[in-house]
Design goal:
The chain is mainly beta. The chain is built from 3 helices and 23 strands. Belongs to the multicopper oxidase family.
Length: 382
Amino acid sequence: MVDQGKTYLLRVVNAVVAADIFFAISQHNLTVVGMDGHYTKPITTSYITISPGQTMDLLLTANQSLGQYYMAARQFWSQSIQVSDFNQFNTTAILQYRGNYTIPSSPSFPKTLPLYKDVQSALKFTTRLRSLASKEHPINVPLNITTKMFITLSMNDLECRNTTCTAKEGENILAAGLNNISWSNPGIDILLAYYRNISGVYTADFPDNPPSFFNFTGEDLPTSIALTELGTKVKVLNYNEAVEVVFQGTNLMAGAGIHPMHLHGYSFYVVGIGLGNFDNETDPKGFNLVDPPEVNTFEVPKNGWLALRFIANNPGVWFWHCHLDRHMTWGMAGVFIVKNGDTVESSIRQPPAYLPSCRVPTRPRLQMSDGFEGKANESSFI
């Protein structure tokens, strides 16, 4: 229920674990003023694209005729365009004006809501986002980078090597990985292992680059380079390091799609985004170092790349992963360990004295097809 002439603040979160979402309100514009707890330069738009786990602050002015208007959302499908049997429902609620008028037989539906496979509309929205970057709300984009990482995001094949694994096809199952490593959760929490110097839980050798460079977004890529290995490899950062990460989407196994990447413990600046293969010579020249959006989740476009920067000034053990949960559980995840600084304030807090042991039972790893090649809901366990 709204009053004509008033402006409302909408706090929107995408709580869907498996899809980016288009959202619009019939005959009303939205003004984006914040993302993930940070101000943005206000942009007026007839729709938004919001990734899993992402939050947005929107201003809505009730400036239309008295009546009822649908608020509507639908999935943005970025996987194989040949697939048609994905979820094509619309979810709706009603924006209703207070006052005396004849209730329409049906609320109007937003004509500006993009269609399910509208990649251009998704990219058009995300590339408009900027930090407020004002005197009252300054930002601090790292300029002198001390650590650079180039990380590929891929669908992969994983060899099925034990009796608890039922392969999807032949001897392999579907997995996902970063720089050809599919994350494997250890039996002991990494934070506990790091804090107590427990050996054998993880290795500190996550690579800064993929094992090989190829046409990441090409068609008909050989399946031989899609084979991945399970690993619990972390990246260790010194306190106050200035970090730049370039995420590169790939088309391995014809599995190209968007990947909303999320970093725990930090916000980061999105300094660049583009389609195709990242060019280390030319693309950095176009980085936005003046007012890039500051967020904790942002999508890597389908067959594209995303460049981000942050200062490693929050010591601890921080998970980072694709926020499409099926990709995360398949292994598209990793961990940053940020070392302590020189003071108590810049060091990991001691665990509480009552810290219990974690005895959550390990559950089987469930594999569900990403929908490409027309295979939906196939499952196997490892």
